[in-house]
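Feature request, filed as a ticket because there's no other form

It would be nice if the structure record came with a short human-readable summary line next to the tokens. Right now we just get the raw output. Example of a typical job, pasted below so the devs can see what we mean:
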Amino acid sequence: MSATTSTLRTGRLGHVGLNVTDLERSLAFYGGVLGFQVLHEGKEDGRRYALLGRDGRLTIALWQQADGAYAPALAGLHHLALEAATMDDVRAAEAELKRHGVDFAYEGVVPHGEGAPSGGIFFHDPDGTRLEIYAPTGAEDAAAPHATAPTCGFF
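Raw output as currently delivered:
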């Protein structure tokens, strides 16, 4: 099926669901570090989950049903990118994440490609899921770690 012949019409991305190994640890990260609000939490034994968002809008659903860490070699989610308004916001997020000891894929802000105006920071959640905080402009003068491939594609 070709995407150009489809009559299906959808809007923007609604939310992303992530499998996690430890809901409390993930809530501390996504809520305490990244600042998402808990909109609803299910605490039933064997069916634990949390719905997180901002301003009442669901953004991320955490499902405690993973047996192991994120596996980049398997099909599925590649990474989750969060957009910031400015590069100053990205740098502030980087400083905050460093204070929390978060694992980074690259040092500092990097562009999405050599000379690209967009770029950001690339890091991992407690289960190893790849995350990005980026801004649409402001990375033009930064060096890309991979000159011929998008930075966000191979971390």
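Something like this underneath would help us a lot:
The helical segments are 23-33, 87-99.
The chain is about 15% helix and 30% strand.
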